[in-house]
Write a structure and sequence with these properties.
The complex is a heterodimer. By secondary structure, chain A is of the alpha/beta class. Chain A has 10 helices and 18 strands. The longest helix of chain A is centred in the last third of the chain and has 21 residues. By secondary structure, chain B is of the alpha/beta class. In chain B, a hairpin with a 2-residue loop joins β2 and β3. The chains are: A alpha/beta, B alpha/beta. The interface between A and B is medium-sized, with 19 and 33 residues.
């Protein structure tokens, strides 16, 4: 039986085969082709019933498909759907912590290396379901490059992860980071194969130097650790979000979900929260609120905000408004 | 001989048109065909995106895909490649782009809107990997240069 297949005359052996027969005979990947008979596309669920007759013009082409994928956060090649990282300190008990982690939807949790009992019992690590959360050990408590590097190596040894949240504190009262030491420690750790996520001050130049040093993210503080003061210096955070190519994760100082939403609206890539959830009256509920705040802020950033105008702009058109007299 | 050119030429106004459609279509992805001759794009055929989640993926609407392919051939053009937009992700083939690519001999142009200015890059996506294709932007051909004019001389 003679038909035209992709504009070429072809002799088919069977009489009036179905579209399905033609596809399977030719070993074509069924999910990836588009079939038309005499110019009409034959839907996949009709392939078994649609018969090809003498003289038909059959077209079989590859379907074209693909796409940019989800709005996911990518850190050093690893992808995350949630843009909320959670800390594991300061919870009243492990049950409360796990309930909060669950309702936050987080995929990345940070644990202070000094709270991991690296000698025997694994302490906090025992309480965490590490099949669900990516572990991000942090060097909390380090005040020198040497301390931080040592802690990072210990953490890698104990947990097997290359990820390290680098903290080098320069001032004990405000817990402000020592950016010079942080940049130096970043260089050392990157050289040793770590994926370094450094905590830093909301300073553009420090952020640029960290990025140059090979940091996988830059994590500027919104306000002092554990203070819940929110983001008073949002313009500095905005400057960093605009200039830095690696993900920008706002870390420290977030008090309420509107702070997290603001960070995301400014174009930051993720937010790390600990005390605001752990010390909320209802941590589980607050964790969910933070999740929604981060999602709202991200969606707002993607939607693109309206321009700010110095003057009022009426919502309704002036035309057609009835006038007196 | 089955290899695509390592370079593809496209007039600026056609490229601008693709970027404009990508912006207008956002947050949904847009897609279409590029047709031309001798490695030079002469016509762009937009095709509706029939994906279930058009914010994250594209599937060319089958009827329109075929119609565009026919339209190009009827004008005596060759299919040189496809284009699609990434409203939120970079101008690089995603895992999905690699998995579903079925035209290794064609060039695949990707418009990213992840940054304020659209970024446009072109690739060959084969089973053995992805390689960049140089995108050469050319001026819009003036009326004096069109074939019919030349023949009329």
């Amino acid at each position: 039986m003679q038909v035209t297949l992709n504009r070429e005359p072809v002799e088919l052996e069977s009489r009036e085969p179905t579209v399905w027969d033609v596809i399977s005979e030719r070993n074509l990947p069924e999910r990836a082709v588009v079939v038309a008979v005499n110019g009409e596309v034959v839907r996949r669920d009709e392939w078994g019933s649609c018969r090809i007759r003498e003289g038909d013009e059959v077209e079989v082409v590859h379907a074209v498909a693909g796409g940019g994928g989800e709005d996911e956060l990518e850190i050093a090649g690893e992808r995350f759907s949630s843009r909320l990282f959670l800390g594991t300190g300061k919870y009243d008990d492990p049950q409360t912590m796990n309930a909060a982690l669950e309702s936050s939807g987080t995929e990345m949790v940070t644990v202070a290396i000094r709270y991991m009992d690296l000698s025997g019992e694994r302490g906090i690590l025992e309480q965490l379901d590490l099949s669900r959360y990516r572990l991000l050990p942090n060097t909390a408590g380090a005040t020198t490059v040497a301390d931080a590097v040592k802690m990072a190596r210990l953490a890698r040894e104990a947990t097997g992860t290359e990820l390290i949240k680098l903290e080098v504190i320069g001032d004990g009262e405000t817990l402000w980071p020592d950016t010079a030491a942080t940049i130096e420690a970043t260089k050392v750790l990157v050289e040793e194969g770590f994926v370094v996520l450094p905590y830093t001050s909301p300073d553009l130049v420090a952020a640029l130097r960290l990025e140059e040093a090979g940091a996988a993210t830059v994590m500027p503080l919104a306000s002092p650790i554990g203070s819940g003061q929110g983001m008073p210096d949002w313009a500095s955070i905005h400057r960093i979000a605009r200039r830095i190519s690696v993900p920008v994760v706002v870390d420290a100082g977030i008090g309420v979900p509107s702070d997290a939403a603001l960070a995301m609206e400014l174009g930051c890539d993720a937010v790390l929260v600990n005390t605001a959830v752990a010390k909320a009256e209802d941590p589980e509920k607050m964790a969910r609120a933070m999740k929604l705040g981060v999602e709202a802020g991200r969606l707002s950033y993607l939607a693109g905000r309206m321009p700010v105008s110095a003057a009022a702009v009426p919502s309704s058109p002036a035309r057609g408004v009835p006038t007196a007299g | 001989l089955n290899r695509p050119p390592e370079r593809i030429e496209i007039p600026r106004h056609l490229l601008d048109g693709i970027a404009r459609r990508a912006r207008e279509g956002a947050p949904r992805e847009v897609c279409g065909w590029l047709a031309g001759a001798n490695g030079r794009v002469l016509e762009v055929y937009p095709v509706p995106n029939a994906a279930e989640r058009p914010e994250a993926e594209f599937v060319m609407q089958p009827e329109a895909q075929l119609a565009a392919m026919r339209a190009g051939k009827e004008r005596g053009l060759r299919l040189l490649g496809t284009y699609h937009s990434h409203p939120r992700t970079p101008a690089e083939p995603s895992a999905r782009d690699r998995r579903l690519a079925r035209y290794p001999v064609l060039s695949h142009l990707i418009v990213s809107l992840a940054r304020p200015e659209p970024e446009i890059r072109c690739y060959r996506i084969a089973e053995d990997g992805v390689s960049p294709v140089e995108l050469r932007r050319t001026p819009k051909p003036g009326p004096a240069l069109t074939e019919s004019r030349l023949r009329g001389c």
